[in-house]
Amino acid sequence: MPGDKESCEAIGGYWETMSFSGNGYCNKMTSDAGKECTDADECEGHCITNAYPDELQIQEKGYVEATGICSNRMILVGCYGRVEDHRLAVNLCIDK
User: Fewer CB under 10 Å: which end of the chain, C or N?
Assistant: First the structure.
């Protein structure tokens, strides 16, 4: 992604400064936002979920099976859970 506002807008992106650091960055909307997914490879952006780990599943299988939705932006800032290979991955908090 471009590192300045003008180049960002030239590719159809938009300039954001909504991070804790106040730094600006280029972002783009995705065309598959809200589509059900089981891995980020199925999305333009990320496969995310608001699911929480089930302690019983973790004890029995060592992981939690999960389904998510494709993110509405290419770059996410904030806290969210990721789905990778049909499994709930670590919940992440990202400050761009």
Answer: N
Retrieve residue 80's tokens.
């969210």
Listed in sequence order, the residues at least 6 apart from 22 whose beta carbon sits closer than 8 Å to its beta carbon are none
Position 70 scores a pLDDT of 97
Q: Within 25-86, where are the H helices?
A: 55-61
Tell whether pTM > 0.85.
no
**Cα angle: 10, vertex 76, 82; to 5 degrees:** 140
DSSP secondary structure code for residue 73 in this structure: B
> Residues for the chain: how many in total?
96
Domain range spanning residue 56?
29-94
How many domains, the chain? Answer: 1
Residue 84 lies in a domain: yes
